[in-house]
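Database export, one record per block. Field names are fixed; values are copied verbatim from the stored entry.
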Amino acid sequence: MKLFVYNMREFDELRFFENYCKENRIKFEYTAESPTLENAKLAKGCEIVDIITTPIKRDLIDKWKEMGVKCITTRTIGYDHIDYEYAKSIGIGVVHISYSPSSVADYTVMMMLMGCRKMKHNMERAAIQDYSLKGKLGRELHNCTVGIVGTGKIGKTVIRNLSGFGCRILAYDVRQSEEVKEYAEYVSLDKLLKSSDIISLHVPATPESFHMIDDKAIAKMKQDVIIINCARGSLIDTEALIKGIEKKKIAFAGLDVIENEAGLYYYNRQGEPLHNPQLAILRSYSNVMVTPHTAFYTDEAVMNMVENSIICAKAYIDGKKTPFEV
């Protein structure tokens, strides 16, 4: 069995690929480049291609099919960047992975605390030696009602982490978890939006979740609400978010993901036009923290991503059941 890896990061992923491919008796080759029609030929003779977040469209899928590819595995939980329905229709399997939920969950709580304590503003003022107190008054997390939208592995871990802070926790999901009920109260999405001081998103990108946070949703929220998104950029209508910040309805936004981040995040774009004016606007606010989709990025999560992308793809090729087949 042979695997071709795109977007290989030699500084953190390569050693894990070497270990787990050897353990699973898989030969592999790689490139640091993102997959394109021009470099699709690199995967010739490989049953599996291993990718990250590059949009994978029909023309590239067709090219890989010609090369003999039988499975596309993505080193991500989300798989909305792949035209997976088309891939499956021509006989190519698509699998995704899971990784340590604590990576994103810890980062989420960090974002909440930074929002409560106006940390970006505080750090910006300290950088120019303004040590005055005006404008830096924060709030305590235990006095807040926190709403968690999505109670899968990551949302559930966020809730468990928050339980130690003593705050009231509300939860919304179409599938309720008995474990979550030990720490949080399930409510309707409408009630969660209206009742929460902090709202954190942990749902996948689907047609149903697209722009779930829009003008109407923001209008329902409490004054000075804090919004955290460490899930997918498409969950928030960025124009609506900007309006909410400008009107001072939103006190803080912690965004590890944004709309139209493909081709931007994970690349060094120093000195280049970013072609994303919404990002420039968001970065200009002292009450918005924007990070480049790095909530997941821990040593354990990277190890999990590599190992599971290999194991799940191998299971598919071997004809075995895997819960991560799309």
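Remark 1: Residues 7 and 32 are 4 Å apart (CA to CA).
Remark 2: The longest helix spans residues 299-317.
End of record.
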